[in-house]
Amino acid sequence: MSSAQLNRAFVVLLKRDLTLAFRRRSEMVNPLLFFVLVTTLFPLGVGADPALLRSIGPGIIWVAALLAALLSLESVLRSDFEDGSLEQLMLSAHPLSVLMLAKVLAHWLVTGLPLLLVAPLLGLLLGLSGDAIVTLVQTLALGTPVLSLVGTIGVALTVGLRKGGMILSLLVLPLYIPVLIFAADAVTSTGAGLPVTAQLSLLSALLVLALSLTPAATAAALKISLA
Amino acid sequence: MWHFFHQLASPRYFYRFAGRILPWLGAACLLLMLAGLYQGLLVAPTDYQQGDSYRIMFIHVPAAWMSLFVYVVMAVSGAVGLVWRIKLAEIVAVASAPIGASFTFLALVTGAIWGKPTWGTWWVWDARLTSELILLFLYLGVIALNSAIEDKRTAARATSVLALVGVVNIPIIHYSVEWWNTLHQGATVTKFDVPSIDLRMLIPLLLMALAFKLFYLVVVLMRARCEILQRERNTGWVRELVEAP
Amino acid sequence: MSWHEFIDMGGRGAYVWSAYGVALVVLVVNLLAPALWRRRLLRELARRLKRSRNPQ
Fold this sequence. Notes:
Largest interface: B-C, 38 and 30 residues
Oligomer: heterotrimer
Number of helices of chain C: 2
Shape of chain C: rod-shaped
Shape of chain A: elongated
Radius of gyration of chain A: 18 Å
Helix content of chain A: over 70%
Order of helices and strands of chain C: HH
Strand content of chain C: under 5%
Structural class of chain C: mainly alpha
Largest sheet of chain A: none
Structural class of chain A: mainly alpha
Number of strands of chain C: 0
Helix content of chain C: over 70%
Distance between the termini of chain C: 69 Å
Number of strands of chain A: 0
Order of helices and strands of chain A: HHHHHHHHH
Strand content of chain A: under 5%
Distance between the termini of chain A: 25 Å
Radius of gyration of chain C: 22 Å
Number of helices of chain A: 9
Number of domains of chain A: 1
C-alpha cells in the first residue's frame, strides 16, 4: 500500500464527511448556538458588572466552548455507526487510525472552527480587551482540535451504547481540564498585560501530543467496542 | 518459575491459589494495620504546630498514595491484558477500579477533615486536593464505562483503554493543576511534607502504607475471584465447585 | 496517657476520630462488597445447577 493511496483515502474520507455535514446544517449550527446561549446566560446569572465580567469572561467562554465541543462530539461517529459505514471503514485496508484522523479533522472543521469565528463577538459582549480577544482566538485554534481528538476516543468507547451520551461526558470532561487551564489562563494573562508564550507553547505541545497519540487510541477503542 | 506464572494466568488455578493465600494476606494486613494504629495514635508524639490533628495523616497519606498507585496498576494490567490478551490481567484492571475510587474518596474526605482544623475550611482549591478530585472523576468514568457495557469481555477491554488514556493524562493534569494553583492561590497553603519527619511519626506512616497496600491486594483478589466465577459460570470446574463447596 | 486524653486528642478528637471512622467504613464496605457478591454468585449458580439437573 503506497502512501499516495493512503493520502487519497484520507482526502476522500474528509470530503465525504464534509459533504455529509453540509447537507445537515442544523447539526453544525446547534453547537454554535449553544456556545452563544450559554455565554449569554452568565451575565444574567452573576450580574452585569463590567469588571466582574471581564475577570471571569475567559473562563466562561472557555467552559462554554468545552461544553459545546462535548455536545457535538457524538456526531463524529454516530451516523456512520448507525448506517454501518463505520464497519466498512474498519474493513478497509488502510490503517484505521489515519481514517479516524480524517474523520476528526472533518468534524473539527464543521463544529470547532465556527466556534473560533463567533468567539470574538462573545469576547466583546463580556468586555474583553482587543489583545485578549486575539489570544482567545489563538487558544481556541490550538485547544479545540485537542478537544475533538481526545473526545473521539470517548466516542469510540461508547458508540455502541444506548445511553452513551451521559457516560461520554463523564469520560471526557476530566481529560479536558489541562486545555481549559492553559487556555483560560492565557486569555486572563493577556488581559492583565502579561506574556502568554508559555501557555500557547504548552497548548501547542498538547495539540502535537494529541495528534500523534489519540488516533491510535481511537482506533483501538473502536475495534473493541465494535468487536 | 515460568511454569508457576503460566499456571497462575489460568483462571481456575488463580481462583484456588488466591483462595489459599487470602487468609494469610488478610491476617498480615490486619496485624500491620493494628501495629500502625498503635504506633500512630499512641506512640507518635504530638506535633508542635498542628497538635494532634496531624494524626489524620496516617490514613490520609497512605490513601492518597494508594489512589495513584492503584490507577497505575489498573492501567498497566489493562495494557498487559490488551497486548497479550491475558484474561486475568483484564480482570485485575476491572477489579481495581472500585478500590482505587474508594481510596481516592477516603483521601479526599480525610483531607477535608484535616483541613478544617489546619486551614479553617473544609475545602481549599489546593493543587493536591484538586488533582485528587479529578482523579476521583477519572475513576468514576472508568467504573461507569465498565458497568455500561453489557458484555463483560468487551467492558474489560474498553475499560483498559480508558485507563491507559487516563494514565497518560494524569501527569499532564497534575502539571496543569499545579500551574493553575501557583497562579491563583499563591503560596498561602502550607504543604504537608515536612523535610525531616520524626522517626516515631515515620514508622506508623510506613506501617499504614504497607497495610493499605496489603488491603488492596486482599480486596483485588476477592473481587477477581468473583469476576472469575461470573465469567466461567458455564465451565466444569465452577460446577464442581458449586456442588462441593 | 489517660483514656480521656486519648479520646480528646488535644481538643481535636472530633476531627481525628471522624476521619478514622470514615476510613473504617470505607475499608469495611470494600471488604463486604466482594464477600456478599461471592455469596450471591455461589447461591445463584447452585440454583441454576439444580434447575438444570431436574427440569420440571
